[in-house]
Write a structure and sequence with these properties.
With 332 residues, the protein is of the alpha/beta class. It has three domains: 45 residues, 434 Repressor (Amino-terminal Domain) (Orthogonal Bundle); 129 residues, Response regulator (Rossmann fold, 3-Layer(aba) Sandwich), CATH 3.40.50; 130 residues, Response regulator (Rossmann fold, 3-Layer(aba) Sandwich). It is 44% helix and 16% strand. The chain is built from twelve helices and twelve strands. A six-stranded parallel sheet has the order 2-1-3-4-5-11, with helices on both faces. It has a six-stranded mixed sheet with strand order 7-6-8-9-10-12, with helices on both faces. Helix 7 links the parallel strand 3 and strand 4. The longest helix is centred in the C-terminal third of the chain and has 17 residues. The chain is elongated, with a radius of gyration of 23 Å. 44% of the residues are buried.
Amino acid sequence: MKVTMKDIAKEANVSTATVSHVINGTKQISEEKHRKIKAIINKYNYVPNSTAKNLRKNKTITAGLVVSSFRDSFISQMVYGVEERAREHGYQILLVNTNEDRNYEEEVISSLHARMVDGVILSPTSSDIGYLNKYTKNDFPTVLVNRYDPVAENTPKVTGDDYQTGFDATLHLLDHGHQKIGVIYAVPNVSTTNERIRGYKDALKKYHLPFNEHYLELGYATVDGGEIAVNSLLEREEDITAVFILNDLMTIGAISKLKELMIKIPEDVAIIGFGDFASAGIIAPPVTNIALPADTIGKTAFDALLNKINNSEYMKHIELPPSMILRKSCGC
């Protein structure tokens, strides 16, 4: 059913003029009425006028890119890849960093939809993305990148192979003789973390070793978080001899703390990080990293969005493989 301004006014028990003022910002409306009307507009995904309707049929040559964080080198490289590919196709990108704020993310998607962008590339803050379905079921082109959840329907996905990332990094440490391997992860309950830990568990199984959940520590994707996490982990689990760290800032923090504690790398604790940040090769010792091709993931995500814009039936999950950059921090 097509919802009109009159329908919204009736449900809100206000005049159509009041609804128009809220939509166009042409008159001050009481906060209570404004909130009520906006809620109904969002509920029905209302596109206010015929101009907007016509824009929907055509293309604005603009796309949204919504990322959950802009802190580490992986995300910045991924964003660069999206923007570079977009420029090649004459597209402008509206970039928003939600800073891991789920509610802000939903507001941003609603705003981008209202602005008639041709589509959105989203790296979500969490698995709580069911709200997307009211857009994607109505053929609003949306591609999930880096993180995803199956609850979102009609959304192609472009990710790294996070399972293989966790498996390969852990297996490398196991092959070096380590059996007590800690993991410092950035964000709980997102696909990147969950899949890497699943790979970690399966590598342990291959060596017939049990999984110990106390070997996992949250580091909040920051330098300070990495320092606190490695200190907490090694104080609690003194038998740990190697650590896999899932974010470059946490890797920097962890190495800083280990040096402060006079713990030798890799003699006392071996390190594998994620994402090959710029200074990884010149830190003492140079840092072994497992990396996903962030730039290629970004470019592929934009390609997938173009496919979705041009073909509403397009559905694919593209996974790109990791690579290991071997240096001295793991004992190589």
